[in-house]
Design a protein that fits this description.
265 residues; alpha/beta
């Protein structure tokens, strides 16, 4: 997902940018309102500071809204209710007050994207991952081949997080921060235990690859492997043309066959 970050405070912008990059976002950073309005590259969401050095962020928000319906999340040290109301009334989709955590901003981004890209009635319902697995985030239920799978609360939270971006490599820090707590300081062995549980309970529907020294990557199994007990290996089936005619194969010589004798006897 592409993010346009409009923020003149370098420490804040650098911290937020690093956090977003860690979570797989692509970030374009500009420091002024004019630069934001002049930016031509495509982006999916705008994070807009109100306290810009060259113009009021509310004016930038209003100008961006007249150009299209790209989601805009205002990030500002202004905690006054009037600014919040004005920002939302002129087109902002959400408002985050400083100081804030990266997790909060990411949660706001995802919530806004769900609102601005609602599912159609035909696609509403549980999310499907491959032919076997469904995750119903609204009801917090998981089904494998149509049968509900009993998951512990943290097992469900871990699965829900990893399936947000199948194929993406998530570091241990990202996972612990998102599923457990941003201030978790204990060992991460509990993560391995929960990963092992998901591998066991959802075997054949997903794989969770451990990347040594980094974290984990969830992959959806698109084509279930056929059961080797019932499906013969094509390579093991003999070619009919290579099977000899039984009539042409000499049988074992009988122990009681008459002795033909030596020539000339």
């Amino acid at each position: 997902m592409r993010v346009l970050l409009v923020e003149d405070d370098q420490p804040v912008a650098e911290s937020l940018r690093r956090g977003l990059l860690r979570y797989g976002f692509q970030v374009e950073w500009v420091t002024t309102g004019h630069a934001a309005l002049a930016h031509q590259g495509p982006y999916d969401v705008v994070l807009l500071d109100l306290g810009l050095p060259d113009t009021d962020g509310l004016d930038v928000c209003k100008a961006l809204r007249t150009r299209g319906d790209v989601p805009i999340i205002v990030i500002s040290a202004r905690s006054d209710e009037t600014d919040r109301v004005v920002g939302l009334e002129i087109g902002a989709d959400d408002y985050v007050s400083k100081p804030f955590g990266v997790r909060e901003v990411i949660a706001r981004i995802r919530a806004v994207m769900r609102r601005v890209r609602p599912r159609t009635e035909t696609s509403a319902g549980p999310d499907r991952y491959g032919p076997r697995l469904t995750v119903d985030r609204k009801a917090a239920r998981v089904r494998l081949d149509g049968v509900e799978v009993a998951l512990a609360p943290k097992e469900y939270d871990l699965l829900a997080f990893l399936t947000e971006e199948p194929g993406a490599l998530m570091s241990r820090e990202q996972i612990m921060e998102a599923v457990w707590d941003a201030n978790w300081f204990g060992p991460t062995k509990t993560l391995d235990v929960h990963v092992a549980a998901l591998r066991r309970k959802l075997a054949g529907a997903i794989t969770i690859e451990a990347v040594r020294g980094v974290g984990f990557r969830l992959e959806v199994v698109r084509d279930p492997v056929p059961d080797s007990k019932t499906t013969p290996d094509p390579g093991s089936v003999p070619d009919p043309a290579s099977v000899p005619d039984p009539a042409s194969v000499p049988g074992p010589q009988s122990a009681h066959a008459p002795d033909q004798g030596a020539p000339g006897s």
